[in-house]
Design a protein that fits this description.
545 residues, 4-stranded antiparallel sheet, 40% helix, rod-shaped
């Protein structure tokens, strides 16, 4: 039997051999079908070969003349028809085999696609399992976000409610502040009326006391009267002469308040002085006789600082409740109160007749317009609690602070222009400008005072205070007339308050000590502008000078 070439069979067998073993059973069926088809094709091929041999044999016999006649031709034609049928059938089988191969190829592609999809599905399932905790966490976070949104909504509602309540409280506060201001003004008017009545009663009492004295004076000879007037004039002239360096013993002492005297200030005309006390009263005294001239009321807490304007007709007292009380020094009438500070006022100074500056423990410096009923025109925040404030002209003010620093400000804008950080190692208790305006005197709780040249903001000298024991945080020192002397109040080891006098030219040295003046610490010293008197205020309720 002649072997017939089948070009479609080897590729099919090769593909079947390389088929995935997981699909063994379907391919075994396919191989069996292919084998049966191959056997059928082989049988038909063998039959086709036999027919071809018969045809060839008949054609040979016809050519050789062994077989002749129309019968042989019919046999040949019949054989040729069978051969054609077999060839056509073989072609159909080949086409069917090709269709099977193509379908198997499509099936293989589909199976590969399914395998890839299954792999992707497994990966997606693994990823889903990995993300399952995150999904739960996302669900929890979603619930929390919802709760937060609800809380935010509630907080917004509460905030709006608080804003409404704040507005109501602000309106109520303004109403109460206006009512309090009206009450204070009414009380000030009543107090002024009482003071007027007290003054009239005092004048009547003096008139009643001096009635007999006036009669005696009228009976006195003219020559005696002239001698008395001449003697009085000479005494006044001697009293107004410039005083030398104060002696070692205080000349006068006056118990003027029932509580601590926190402040003393001499008027610009050097004719009177004012004292402020923890008893909430400010008193005006005659500088020469130490006689009380008036009492100024209106403060509702302790008076810590006092300050005159340049003409001496307005006196301001800074109190421990943060308010500054303004009086007419000539008529002793309470004009108004300045409210704005939240802590005690520790410094007062006038930039000019209509501009007042105050500092406080609330770390602010405030500027007030006295002509506009004390309107606050500027508030400046500081870096530390203020302890004192002073101005020496030239448009510059200086402030001392609890952190040991000294700071300088522009009078018009209250903007900082210079800062001396660490000027002292402890809290600075006071600052004072010299009359020439070029030097600053500062005292500190470290037991020393310093002089500063503000032209270049440099330290000139540091002077330890002799017999130093303690110094109040509100203590104030000062320059004397013509900046030649410096007065400092200290507490000695024997708990006596004394005033030490230093020269300020060259290296300051102690010149004199004024003792026997106070039985407690000295809160402030004040030199009269004309140099005629040096006053000291103490916590024993007394004034010495």
């Amino acid at each position: 039997m002649t072997e017939v070439a089948c070009p479609w069979l080897p590729p099919l067998v090769e593909q079947v051999k390389h088929r995935n073993m997981r699909m063994t059973f379907p391919y075994e069926v396919l191989l069996r079908d292919i084998a049966e088809a191959q056997q059928a094709v082989a049988a038909k091929t063998e039959e086709l070969d036999d027919l071809r041999q018969q045809k060839n044999e008949l054609q040979r016999q016809v050519r050789s003349g062994v077989v002749a006649g129309p019968g042989s031709q019919k046999i040949i034609t019949s054989l040729e028809d069978k051969i054609k049928d077999l060839e056509a059938q073989q072609r159909r089988w080949v086409d069917d085999a090709r269709v099977i191969i193509d379908s198997q190829k499509e099936k293989r592609d589909l199976q590969d696609t399914v395998s890839v999809l299954q792999t992707d599905n497994a990966s997606l399932r693994a990823e889903a399992e990995r993300l399952l905790p995150f999904e739960k966490e996302h669900s929890v976070m979603t619930d929390e976000a919802k709760l937060l949104r609800d809380e935010h909504t509630q907080l917004v509602s509460d905030h709006e409610k608080l804003l409404r309540e704040k507005k109501q409280f602000s309106d109520e506060n303004l109403r109460l502040a206006d009512s309090a201001m009206e009450t204070k003004l009414l009380l000030a008017d009543k107090m002024n009326e009482v003071l007027e009545l007290e003054k009239k009663v005092k004048e009547l009492s003096e008139q009643m006391k001096t009635g007999s004295h006036q009669n005696q004076l009228e009976q006195t000879p003219d020559c005696s009267r002239t001698a008395m007037m001449s003697m009085s004039g000479e005494q006044d002239q001697q009293r107004r002469q410039a005083a030398p360096v104060p002696s070692q013993i205080a000349r006068k002492k006056q118990n003027c308040h029932q509580h601590d005297v926190n402040a003393v200030e001499v008027s610009p005309q050097s004719t009177s002085f004012a004292t402020g006390s923890s008893d909430k009263v400010v008193k005006i005294w005659d500088l020469n006789t130490f006689e009380e001239k008036a009492q100024l009321r209106g403060a509702v807490s302790a008076v810590l600082r006092l300050g005159y304007n340049t003409t001496g007709d307005i006196l301001v007292g800074g109190t421990s409740d943060g308010s500054a009380v303004v009086w007419n020094a000539s008529s002793s009438r309470h004009m108004f109160s300045l409210c704005g500070h939240t802590q005690k006022i520790t410094g007062i100074c006038f930039a000019d007749d209509k501009t007042l500056l105050t500092c406080s423990g609330d770390r602010t410096i405030r500027k007030w317009d006295i002509q506009r009923s004390g309107a606050c025109t500027k508030t400046t925040m500081c870096w530390s609690n203020c302890t004192d404030l002073t101005t020496g002209g030239g448009g510059v003010i200086a402030s001392s602070h609890y952190d040991g620093g000294i700071r300088f400000w522009d009078t018009r804008t209250v903007n900082n222009i210079e800062e001396l950080k660490g000027a002292h190692t402890q809290a600075v208790t006071s600052v004072c400008f010299s009359q020439c305006g070029n030097k600053i005197l500062s005292t500190s709780r470290e037991g020393a005072f310093k002089l500063w040249d503000i032209r270049n903001y440099s330290e000139m000298c540091k002077v330890p205070i002799s017999d130093y024991s303690s110094m109040l945080l509100t203590h104030k020192a000062c320059f004397g007339q013509d900046d030649q002397l410096i007065a400092v109040g200290v507490l000695t080891d024997s708990t006596r308050g004394v005033v030490q006098i230093y020269n300020s030219v060259g290296k300051p040295r102690i010149r004199s000590t004024l003792g026997d003046g106070h039985d407690n610490q000295i809160s402030q010293v004040s030199w009269a502008p004309d140099g005629s008197m040096l006053l000291s205020a103490g916590l024993d309720g007394a004034i010495a000078g």
